[in-house]
Amino acid sequence: MPSVICIGSALIDELYFCNENVIAGTSNPxxxxxxxxxxxxxxxxxxxxxxxxxxxxxxxxxxxxGKWVMDELHKAGIKIENVALVNDPxxxxxxxxxxxxxxxxxxxxDVCEKYLNPSFLEGKVETxxxxxxxxxxxxxxxxxxxxxxxxxxxxxxxxxxxxVSVAKSRKLAALDIQNVFxxxxxxxxxxxxxxxxxxxxxxxxxxxxxxxVQNIWLRKGxxxxxxxxxxxxxxxxxxxxxxxxxTGAGDAALAGWIVGYLNNYNExxxxxLGHTLAFEVLQIKGAVNHHIKFSSxxxxxxxxxxxxx
Length: 309
Description:
Blueprint: E1 3-7, E2 11-18, E3 30-37, H1 39-49, E4 53-61, H2 64-75, E5 83-86, E6 92-97, E7 103-109, H3 112-115, H4 118-122, H5 125-128, E8 133-137, H6 142-154, E9 158-162, H7 166-169, E10 182-183, H8 187-194, H9 201-210, E11 215-219, E12 225-228, E13 233-236, H10 249-262, H11 267-282, H12 294-304
Parallel strand pairs: 1-4, 1-8, 2-6, 4-5, 8-9, 9-10, 10-11
Antiparallel strand pairs: 2-3, 6-7, 11-12, 12-13
Helix pairs in contact: 1-10, 8-9, 10-11, 11-12
C-alpha cells in the first residue's frame, strides 16, 4: 500500500451537545464529549484503520494531553517519529452543537502555526520524500503551505489541501496553487478562497482551475458533492440519514476518498467511499469511527449506493 503523510494540527476536541438549539448570550444545558481531534488527526486515524501506511507530522504540547494524543496515535498504528513536543499547551477545539447535531459555533487554539514553519519542514525533507500522497490543512502558516506546494511541485508529489474553515481557507486566496492535486472546500470555504461573494459558484470553480489546481472537490452538505477538473465534473447525491454529530464528517469523507484512490477505484467509486465514511461518522458522537475497516466500508457503500459494483 502506498504511504500517506499527514501534516497539520492535532488537537483536543471538546464537543458540547446542547439539549436544545443553542441560544446566544445565555447558558445552554449540554452534555460533553472529549476526544482527540484536528482535521488531519481525524484523517490519519481513519486511514490507519483502513490499512493505509500513515506518517504524521504535527506539533503537540509537552503536557499530559500531548502524551495522550501520542499514545492514541501510536495505538492506531500511525507513525509518530516526526511529532514534535513543545513547551506550549496542546491545541484545543471547542464546539457547541444544536440538538440536531449541527454546528452552532466553534473556537480553536493551536500551536501548529507557530512551530510548524518552513524551517521545521526543511528538517523533515527525508520523510516527505517517502510519501506518495501528502495531505496538509490550513492550520499551518501561509509560508508553510507555500513551502509544501513548492516541494510537491519540485518532487512531483501528490498534494491535497484541506481548507478547514472559512477563516483559515483565506490563506489559499493569494497563494500560487499551480500543480496542487486537489483542494476540498465546502461552499462557504469556496467563497472565502475566491474572496468574491458576488461571483457564481461555477465561475469560482473556473477561476480556481485557471489558477492551476488539478481537482476541486466541493462539499455541499445534504446536497452531496461535486468533483471538478478541467476535463469533467462528477456529482454524487447524499443519502438521507439521521445525524447525531456533524463533527469530522468532511475529514472522514477525505479519508474515504483517499483509500479508494489508493486502491485504484474510479472517480465515482472514490466519491461513494468518501460519502459512505462521512455518513458513518455523522451517525455517531465524535469525529472518528474507531471500528471502521476497509471491508466494512465497502459493505456500507453497497448499502448507501445500491447500484455500486
